[in-house]
Amino acid sequence: MKRIEVGQADFAASRFGHSPLLETLNALGLVAGRIPVGALRPWVERARPRYLAIADDPAVRALVFLRRRAGYMADFVSPPPARPNLTVADQLATMRATPLDQARREVARNLADLPEPDRVVRSVLDAPDMVGRLATGMETAWHTLLEPDWPVVRSILERDIVHRAGRLAAYGWAEALDGLSRRVRWRDGVIEVDIAAGGDAVHRLGGAGLMFVPIVFSELGLAVEPGWPYTLMYRARGVAALWERPERGPDDALAKLIGRTRADLLRLLADPATTTWLSARLRVSVGGVGDHLAVLRAAGLVTRQRSGRSVLYRRTAVGDVLADPP
């Protein structure tokens, strides 16, 4: 059990972000069979052929080996985001700037209790340009596995951030943590995280705040290593948007009134969403979704607001009544 003591200054200092490299490493672990696929099986089955095209790359093989199911993993390979809205280029630059001595220490710790790597993996990990080779392998994995789905993944993460940050701002720690994970709870000024790795420990934020990082391709994680921001990683809401479509009833009065696609959009906007996320759920082009949203907005059924680099749409009160009548 890890306990994180929270002070008054930590509330204002806490923030939300996402980590493209962390998602890439987790996605790589899923398609390579290093971690259980669970509910993400539909995505894994779709993405595995893409993985097989790069599976023999020595740096990719080394990254797969380092992605262990539990226990410490080298921080420089998937650095926690130091600020919100980081791009994959930002994180790759951070990774490549890692001093070799630091990277070797982290890799040695990562390898503890793992079997001896094979000759190909060992050649990468022992190379004088190990950091650069692993960064290039991560970039290859990103372009092959995650970049095709990143607009949808990013919109899932941004949608979750809007939801969770709103709860934190409006109601405080207890409400923000509610429903985040069964293994996370708030108790008398302390965040308790039920993670066995590393044994029991107490950590103090000391006014630096906590970085919340929603993730799609893994579950609960906690980073409390010196030199990195304290980071709580948790499964984002709505990951099924990567493969599911909304269910439709046989007799849909709303669809008859405003059209099938607009009815589906209105129902999906029970929570704020981007056009990219809506496009993925409905298998309709982003432009087509935008056209329908413009009509719904003109009719006073949806509104929009900017959140960081994205524009989020949400239902108005009138839209709520129409989509979910009493």
TrEMBL record:
InterPro entries: ArsR-like_HTH, HTH_ArsR_DNA-bd_dom, Metal_resp_trans_reg, WH-like_DNA-bd_sf, WH_DNA-bd_sf
One Pfam family hit: HTH_20
CDD domains in alphabetical order: HTH_ARSR (cd00090)
Claim: Transcription regulation is one of the keywords in the record: yes
Keywords: DNA-binding, Transcription, Transcription regulation
Single GO term (MF): DNA binding
Domain HTH arsR-type, first and last residues per copy: 252-324
The UniProt record lists the keyword Protease: no
Coiled-coil region(s): none
PANTHER family linked: ARSENICAL RESISTANCE OPERON REPRESSOR ARSR-RELATED, HTH-TYPE TRANSCRIPTIONAL REPRESSOR CZRA
Protein name: Winged helix-turn-helix transcriptional regulator
